């Protein structure tokens, strides 16, 4: 549906670093709508939704989403995109913030938007968190993971 695609394109515009209108972004959602970050298994509702948009912009003030493909299928809009920006603010993690590195990110992602009566009911964001972390300089510690597994196996 053309109007559903327009709604989603407006959502992306409102979440751009140079616009950043969290209240406008939230207004596009149904009252019970959700924003689901599938890479972290976190779900956000109501006033949390604009906070997520603002939080990303704190870490990447110039955040931009390069829309590669947009396909509307009735009340579902599928988008292939790249999340781009510069890491100029702390990046929150469960154990603390990763300090700004100044690194550029260009992260592949796919978003599925589910609409009801022209409003966003559910937004599922699938971004490649491993690419994201690598681009800001966070690399997995495979050695510690292997050693922990080996230690657990020998003590069992």
From TrEMBL:
InterPro entries: NTF2-like_dom_sf, SnoaL-like. Residues 21-122 form the SnoaL-like domain. This is SnoaL-like domain-containing protein. Signal peptide: none annotated. Pfam families: SnoaL_2. It comes from Streptomyces caelestis.
């Amino acid at each position: 549906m053309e109007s559903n695609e327009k709604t989603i394109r407006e959502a992306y515009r409102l979440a751009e670093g140079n616009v950043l209108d969290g209240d406008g972004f939230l207004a596009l959602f149904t009252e019970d709508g959700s924003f689901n970050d599938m890479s972290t298994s976190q779900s956000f509702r109501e006033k949390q939704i604009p906070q997520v948009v603002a939080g990303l912009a704190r870490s990447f003030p110039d955040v931009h989403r390069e829309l590669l493909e947009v396909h509307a299928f009735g009340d579902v809009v599928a988008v292939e995109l790249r999340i781009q920006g510069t890491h100029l603010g702390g990046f929150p993690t469960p154990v603390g913030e990763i300090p700004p590195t100044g690194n550029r990110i260009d992260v592949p992602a796919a978003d599925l938007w589910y609409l009801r009566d022209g409003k966003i009911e559910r937004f599922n964001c699938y971004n490649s968190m491993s690419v994201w972390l690598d681009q800001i300089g966070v690399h997995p510690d495979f050695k510690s993971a292997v050693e922990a597994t080996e230690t657990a196996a020998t003590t069992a």
